[in-house]
Design a protein that fits this description.
membrane, Laminin, repeat, transmembrane, 6-stranded antiparallel β-sheet, 74 strands, Tie2 ligand-binding domain fold, NELL2-like_EGF, 16 helices, alpha+beta, 32% strand, EGF-like_Ca-bd_dom
Length: 1035
């Protein structure tokens, strides 16, 4: 067959080659053109190319160097014809094969390569007169004559200010080159301002002027003598005699009355003179009378006081307003470029390019203007591309691609790749690369089949040798050697058996690449070109896998474009390599084909080691997960039930529905459809159950009466699973016990068969109806309906007694755990509870159901009640003990109530309430602890101290220790010392002391009791006895 181009003809075919290849003598093989020829069948010679050729391409011929064009690269390109090729301050000069941008006059290249202004006044590159001043401007300069000279700046001459009357001397003026000097008449000297004169005392002048009858105006003139010594009167410059010869008074002359005094524009009369001025935009010339335009001196404004200093963006310097900017510039000196492109002035797909001071509308690269619209240039048609095989035009450019059997390198060049080395071929035995293609051949003893790839056995070269090769045998050095077909390897154990080596993975994906019916035929250019382009788009995705060897597209089919391709590796497949390759493929969401993205949609399918296609999602699930189809091209990995068991409830239900064999295949759409229906049905009845994460069907099984379904309800947390158990249980019981026990599935209520089971694990499912059985009932399965029901146990005296004595009822439900049934007789012994059931001799099974929430509920209520009862009991015991203790104390007080020492009157009346006899904790301390002189309870009584524990009087009732009989008594003649005070603290009868002794709080929270230092009463004065007043102990 032809390796490149095959042209069919009647009864035969003809082989031809791509451009850049030459058909060999066998009329089949194609070889590349040598370096001396190019074009179709290598018919053109590279010697036709001129010296301006960069290289000779075997497909396109002369590839011109930059700046040259033409078939032989002999035509110079005038780059200066391109608008904007040089900068605003540059001029373009074309040269052979190139061009140069040079700075305009007045500019030179700076260190940064840009054109910068030359200051001619500094560098001496000006032609101004020596009596002129040089003023630099942007790109040029100006010359203007200095003060005292007139001219155009290039030539300047002296001005006679004295003759023109433009001097400002008060008396006399003498002209000098470039200026003038003032001097004074006899009898005066020049002032320091070198213009006015001061009178000096000269005798000869004074004598002459005083001896005459002349009356001179000494304010605006004076008297002097002439060369003959005669005196005369004179007026200062700008004055004249009012009546010459008669009156020598000097009056001001209005020079402006006489022909504007020679001023070109404005004449202003001053006292003793005049001045010429100019309009705005003009400057008084060096003759002080004429006016020069500011434009001549690169200045503007009043008297040209402002320098223009205009930038490159100035059209000119207006003598009134200064720099006038060109279009595209702004700023005082017109140096700021305006980016006109910000206003989007270009239309019809043209691109705006901002330039210095302007902008231009151009077409993007790869376009040209046609009827003021940018139109794409087809470089492939114009042959202005640089591709050496396939050129694909695109908007604004082109792309290079290759023909089948070649790979693109460097964006433009196609190089042949070795399909044989990359295992990118379908040869059964031998692959021979031909540079851009390959062909298959067979070993000795085999012949090539008509499909040009497989080999048929012809004879056995090793027939006379004692060897049993499983595939084929050849003689090497007259010794038989077994060999295997490509893709197989010879066993190292016996060197005779061949086993397959899996080195490739095949994928099938759906894309939106435009499909053509010709793409299904591998012999068409459409197939070959799409194969090359899509292979290039996919190849980069796998190139980072170290074991990756090659990728080739095998076939295309319709349905958008379904692409089937094979990824080949340099080693046999391992589980990790399969997963890595599948992960890479999963991330392919689009294929870039010739710079255009095409989306990948739906599920990708994979096959390896077998021809069975598997969803890619399922491949990535792993062995311990379950892959389930959700809808067309949508699959899901579900974790093993053991991972979610702790927060899941499991159900099992059998519905009287015809079983579909596809229900057993979790990757079949029938499974997905029925799964969705059931999940929606159970989700609808579970609306009152809280915190459900999701509900799934886990299995469909065939049952003689229908379909048995296993479901799992997964909660977000373990705790919520426990709390919601009873709700789920009650819902399922309600479904099973209603008049018509069925499940609504797609508007049809499908009847239940048997009972619904529920459990915390998949192996501990119990019929939900059993949870309703009382203690005196058994949960028994009906053999005909397979449904469980609660049946009263057989009644005997023993069981009745046991039922009476040993049952416990919570919320109206009696539960008996662990009943053992033998030969139909139920026996209950006392209140003993045993878990589990035993069935013998064909009797029905008794099942008791428990909810773990019962235990939690019991503990939640029982424990707080038990703790509360214990605390109340302890308080009551303490109260009883205290009551007994207080009764004993009262009896002691009554026995010792006699006032032996008559201290009552001294301490007030006795208040037994302070002994703690009223109420559990005595009376109000704050009311008792006070001096009673202003107290409503003790008015009109002598001031007395009310003790917070004893009341008035009865100090000797204060006892020490635990025994109230231990009293602190002092004899009348006893002297109380400090050692006597160190006695154990007395305990009062106040109720809080008992609590204090019993509770014993920390020291830092004790409340110190106040103490009273009582003075001796009057009735004791003179007696030897003293009564010790002790400090009360702290509470």
């Amino acid at each position: 067959m032809c390796p490149q181009v095959c042209t069919n003809s009647a009864g035969s075919y003809t082989c031809s080659c791509y451009d850049g290849f030459r058909l060999q003598g066998d009329k089949t093989t194609c070889l590349e053109c040598s370096g001396l020829n190019w074009g179709p069948n290598c018919a053109r010679k590279c010697s036709e190319c001129s010296a301006n050729t960069k290289r000779c391409d075997r497909v396109k011929g002369c590839i011109c160097a930059t700046g040259w064009t033409g078939a032989a690269c002999s035509q110079d390109i005038n780059e200066c014809d391109q608008t904007g090729i040089c900068g605003e301050l540059e001029d373009c000069k074309n040269s052979f094969g190139s061009y140069e941008c040079v700075c305009k006059t007045g500019y030179k290249k700076g260190s940064d390569g840009s054109c910068q202004d030359v200051n001619e006044c500094v560098t001496g590159l000006n032609n101004c007169d020596r009596n002129a001043e040089c003023v630099n401007t942007e790109g040029s300069h100006l010359c203007s004559c200095k003060l005292g000279y007139s001219g155009d700046g290039l030539t300047c001459s002296d001005i006679d200010e004295c003759a023109l009357g433009t001097d400002d001397c008060k008396q006399e003026c003498i002209n000098v080159i470039g200026s003038f000097n003032c001097y004074c008449r006899i009898g005066f000297r020049l002032n320091t301002d070198r213009k006015t004169c001061l009178k000096i005392m000269l005798p000869e002048v004074e004598n002459k002027c005083n001896s005459t009858s002349l009356v001179c105006d000494l304010l605006n003139g004076g008297c002097s003598i002439n060369s003959t010594g005669d005196a005369f009167c004179f007026c200062n410059s700008g004055y004249e005699f009012t009546n010459p010869g008669v009156d020598y008074t000097c009056t001001d002359i209005d020079e402006c009355q006489n022909n504007n005094s020679g001023c070109e524009q404005i004449c202003t009369d001053n006292t003793g003179g005049y001045s010429c001025t100019c309009l705005t935009g003009y400057k008084l010339s060096s003759d002080s009378k004429s006016c020069d335009s500011c434009n001549e001196t690169s200045t503007w404004g009043q008297n040209c006081a402002n320098g223009c200093n205009c930038g490159i963006g100035a059209e000119f310097c207006d003598r009134l307003t200064g720099c006038v900017c060109k279009r595209g510039y702004s700023g005082i000196y017109c140096t700021e470029n305006i980016n006109e492109c910000l206003s989007s002035p270009c239309l019809n797909n043209q691109t705006c390019v901002d330039t210095v001071g302007s902008y231009k509308c151009t077409c993007p690269t790869g376009y040209h203007i046609q009827n003021d619209v940018c139109v794409d240039e087809n470089e492939c048609v114009l042959q202005t591309d640089s591709c050496n095989q396939r050129c694909i035009n695109k908007a604004g450019g082109y792309l290079c691609s290759c023909k089948d059997g070649f790979v693109l390198t460097g964006n433009t060049t196609c190089q042949p790749f070795d399909e044989c080395a990359l295992l990118n071929n379908n040869c059964e035995q031998i692959c021979v690369d031909t540079g851009g293609s390959f062909y298959c051949s067979c070993r000795d003893g085999f012949v090539l089949n008509s499909d040009q790839s497989s080999c048929d056995k012809d004879y056995d070269p090793c027939a006379n040798n004692n060897i049993n090769c499983s595939y084929g045998c050849v003689l090497e050095n007259n010794a038989p050697v077994c060999f295997c077909q490509l893709g197989y390897e010879l066993s190292t154990d016996d060197s005779q058996t061949c086993s397959v080596v899996y080195r490739s993975v095949q994928f099938t994906m759906t894309t939106d690449y435009p499909y053509s019916s010709k793409m299904s035929d591998p012999s068409t250019d459409e197939f070959k070109h799409a194969r090359v382009d899509i292979t290039a788009g996919l190849d980069d995705s796998y190139s980072n896998i170290p074991e990756f060897l090659s990728l080739t597209v095998d076939r295309f089919s319709s349905g958008s474009t379904v692409v089937q391709y094979t990824v080949v590796f340099n080693q046999s497949l391992s589980d990790s390599l399969i997963i890595e390759t599948a992960s890479v493929t999963k991330n392919i969401t689009q294929i870039i084909v010739l710079e255009k993205p095409y989306s990948v949609s739906g599920e990708i399918f994979v096959s390896y080691k077998t021809t069975i296609l598997e969803p890619l999602t399922c491949t990535l699930c792993g062995s311990n997960h379950t892959c389930v189809i959700l809808s067309i091209n949508t699959y899901e990995c579900r974790p093993p039930l053991s991972e979610i068991e702790s927060r899941s409830l499991f159900m099992e239900v059998t519905l009287q529905k015809t079983f579909n064999s596809n229900y057993g295949n979790k990757l079949h759409l029938d499974y997905a459809a029925y799964e969705v229906d059931l999940e929606q049905a159970f989700a609808a009845v579970m609306t009152g159950v809280e915190d459900i994460q999701y509900l799934n069907v886990t299995d469909f099984r065939h049952h003689t009466e229908g379909v048995t379904t296993s479901l799992v309800v997964i909660f977000n947390t373990i705790a919520n699973k426990t709390l919601q158990y009873d709700k789920v249980l009650n819902i399922l019981v309600k479904i099973e016990t209603k008049d018509r026990s069925c499940i609504d599935i797609v508007d049809t209520c499908i009847a239940l068969y048997g009972s619904i089971s529920l459990g915390n694990t998949t192996t501990a499912l119990e019929p939900v109806i059993c949870s309703t059985c009382s203690l005196i009932q058994d949960c028994i399965q009906d053999n005909q309906t397979s449904r469980y029901q609660c049946v009263n146990k057989p009644t005997t005296e023993q069981t009745a007694s046991s039922a009476t004595e040993g049952t416990t009822t919570v919320e109206g439900t009696t539960t008996t755990e662990g009943t053992t049934t033998t030969e139909g007789t139920t026996t209950l012994e006392g209140t003993t509870t045993t878990e589990g059931t035993t069935t013998t001799e064909g009797t029905t099974t008794t099942v008791q159901s428990k909810s773990s929430s019962d235990l939690i509920l019991g503990l939640g209520i029982g424990l707080p009640l038990a703790i509360s009862a214990f605390i109340i009991s302890m308080i009551m015991i303490c109260m009883c003990c205290r009551h007994k203790y207080r009764s004993d104390s009262e009896s002691t007080v009554q026995e010792q109530s006699e006032d032996d020492w008559k201290v009552g009157p001294a301490f007030g009346r006795f208040d037994p309430s302070l002994r703690g006899t009223r109420g559990a904790f005595g009376t109000d301390l704050m009311r008792q602890w006070s001096r009673t002189s202003g107290d409503k309870y003790h008015r009109d009584q002598p001031e007395e101290l009310v003790h917070p524990y004893f009341g008035p009087g009865s100090l000797d009732d204060f006892t020490t220790g635990a025994d109230s009989s231990e009293r602190l008594d002092f004899a009348p003649d006893t002297t109380v010392g400090e050692e006597d005070l160190e006695v154990p603290p007395r305990r009062s009868n106040f109720s809080w002391d008992f609590m204090f002794d019993m509770l014993d709080p920390r020291e830092e929270v004790k409340i110190p009791r106040p103490f009273v230092d009582a003075e001796e009463a009057d009735l004791f004065r003179g007696k030897k006895e003293k009564i010790l007043h002790k400090r009360d102990s702290n509470v």
